[in-house]
Write a structure and sequence with these properties.
This protein is mainly alpha-helical. The chain has one domain (about 30-60, about 70-340): ABC transporter involved in vitamin B12 uptake, BtuC (Orthogonal Bundle), CATH 1.10.3470. Helix content is about 75%, strand content about 0%. The chain contains 14 helices and no strands. Helix 3 crosses helix 13 (about 285-310). The two termini are about 35 Å apart.
């Protein structure tokens, strides 16, 4: 039998290899005629003290570094963030159906994006990312404020129910504005269904700090998440303040989620599918669950983007359609398993 440290190393190495393969595939797929060898050599040529001829034309290099690479890296950041946030949500709420959109992030972000498009008209997309970010954060703030007035944030059930109420209210306002301005429906739905189209590296550089900080804070609390999985009473007896930890982790996970959603639109099911699938394979310990969720989530979204670009080429499917096609059946499987456990 393989020792536990060696097994962890093998599992992490395998996940990293899958992620790198998915990224290379994401870069290669398309009509530019890029080759694996040419791409790898051109990447190596950008390293210090390395000077090699990749054989790529100037046009191919522009496509590689200004279109394909930013899109793939953005997919890695979005997928990793949604998966790690999903693992954190499922840990603090002890619920395998929890995901980063649980407390109204998606509805708040959708409302913010809709208002930006309605107010901005044809140029509305320029204001969508900041509006979606602010909308998502305000929705979660409203959820916690409502939860505190009802139950003092003592119970995760109260917070979840407050999130449902806030999401319903935000969705109602969004629908109202969409009905008033039905000429913007196409733009709104284009954003809501998700996309990874980028204008160079600007989106990547915008969301990168949020993702790094969020993942670091959640990773530092991996042992706390393990303790909280046994229940609030037991965690409190071990010196942990469950409500305080829950507020911190939900806040940072929401911050990271709102940041990536502002750049990618609403991409559902990644936060449910990936952490739960990883948990089924390696168990509930967050020491392995968090890094694996990060890498598998990143690879999953990059591969979903490859499918979105390939299935109806040269047209492109919204990436949210692809993730929903995979995630919805998995959600039903999780629901049945959860019902059986209870």
């Amino acid at each position: 039998m393989i020792a536990a440290p060696r097994r962890r190393a093998l599992v992490l190495t395998g996940a990293a290899s899958i992620l790198l393969a998915a990224m290379l595939l994401g870069i290669l797929v398309g009509p530019a005629g890029l080759t694996p060898g040419g791409v790898l050599l051109d990447i190596a040529d950008r390293l210090p003290f390395v000077d090699v001829d990749s054989g790529l034309t100037t046009r191919q290099q522009a496509i590689l570094w200004n279109i394909r690479m930013p899109r793939v890296v953005l997919g890695v950041l979005v997928g990793a963030m949604l998966a790690v946030a999903g693992a954190a949500y499922q840990g603090v709420f002890r619920n395998p159906l929890a995901d980063p959109y649980l407390l109204g992030v998606s509805s708040g972000a959708g409302l913010g994006a809709t208002l930006a498009i309605v107010v901005g008209g044809a140029a509305g997309f320029a204001g969508v990312p900041p509006a979606a970010f602010v909308g998502g954060m305000l929705a979660v703030g409203a959820t916690y404020a409502l939860g505190r007035t009802v139950g003092g944030v003592r119970s995760e059930v109260v917070i979840i129910l407050a999130g449902v109420a806030v999401a319903a209210f935000a969705n109602a306002i969004q629908t109202f504005f969409m009905q008033l301005h039905d000429d913007t429906l196409r733009q709104v739905y284009s954003w809501m269904l998700g996309r990874l189209a980028t204008d160079g590296w600007s989106d990547v550089l915008t969301v990168l700090p949020y993702v790094v900080v969020t993942v670091a804070i959640i990773a530092l609390h991996r042992r706390t998440l393990d303790v909280m999985s046994v229940g609030d009473v037991e965690a409190a007896s071990l010196g942990i303040h469950p409500a305080r930890v829950r507020l911190l982790l939900v806040s940072v996970a929401t911050l990271g989620t709102a940041a990536v959603v502002s750049a990618s639109g609403l991409i559902g099911f990644v936060g449910i599918v990936v952490p739960h699938a990883v948990r089924l394979l390696v168990g509930p310990g967050h020491r392995l669950l968090l890094p694996l969720s990060l890498m598998v989530g990143a690879a999953f979204l990059v591969l979903a983007d490859v499918l979105a670009r390939s299935v109806m080429a040269p047209a492109e499917l919204p990436i949210g359609v692809v993730t929903a096609a995979v995630g919805a059946p998995f959600f039903l499987v999780v629901l049945r398993r959860s019902r059986g456990v209870r």
